[in-house]
C-alpha cells in the first residue's frame, strides 16, 4: 500500500522549493525592470538637455561634436531598451503567475491542514508539523516580492511598459525632428 501522506509531503516540498526559487528570482527581474526604466529616463533627459543647447555647448567643447547626427544612438538605444524591458516584463509576469499558482495551492493546503482532521488523508498534528515555518516564511516572502517596487499591484509591469513606450516615442520623435 502506498503511503499517501509521504507522496503528499513530497509534492508539497517540491512546490515550496519552486516557490522559494521564484522568490529569489523575481526581485532581480524587478530590479532590472526599474533600472532600465531609470536609464531610459536619464537618456531622455540627456537628449532634452542637448536639444535645449546646454549639452550642445558642453559636448561641442569637450568631445568635438558638431552635428546633431550624434543623437542617432539615442534613436537606437531607446527602442532597444524598451524591447528588452518588454521581454523582462513578460518574463516577470510569467514567473509571477507560476508563483501565484504555487502560492494558492500551498495556501489551500495550509488551510486544509488546519481545518480537515477527519478526511481520507490524515491531516492531524503530524500534517501541520510537516507544513513548516520555513514554508510559511517562503509564502510570505513571495507575497512581498511578487510586485514591482515602485508600482505594486497587478498592473505594475503593464504601467512600466507603457511608460517606457511613451519614453521611446518621445525620444524617437525629438531625435527625428533634429536630424
Structural domain count: 1
- State the helix count: 6
State the shape: rod-shaped
Low-confidence regions:
1-8, 120-124
Mean pLDDT over the full residue set: 75
Query: How do the SSEs run, as a string of H and E?
Result: HHHHHH
What is the structural class? mainly alpha
Oligomer classification? single chain
State the end-to-end distance.
Answer: 77 Å
Query: Compute the gyration radius: what is it?
Result: 25 Å
Helix content: over 70%
Task: Count the E strands.
Answer: 0
Percentage beta strand: under 5%
Reported for the largest beta sheet, the result is: none
List the helices and strands and how they pair.
Blueprint: H1 4-52, H2 54-63, H3 72-115, H4 125-130, H5 133-145, H6 156-178
Features:
mainly alpha, single chain, 6 helices, 0% strand, rod-shaped, 179 residues
Protein model, in words:
With about 180 residues, this protein is mainly α. The protein has one domain. Helices cover about 80% and strands about 0% of the residues. It has helices at about 5-50, 55-65, 70-115, 125-130, 135-145, 155-179. Helix 1 (about 5-50) packs antiparallel against helix 3 (about 70-115) and helix 3 (about 70-115) packs antiparallel against helix 6 (about 155-179). The longest helix is centred in the first third of the chain and has 49 residues, at about 5-50. It is rod-shaped and about 65 Å long. The relative contact order is 0.18. Mean pLDDT is about 75; it is low at about 1-10 and about 120-125.
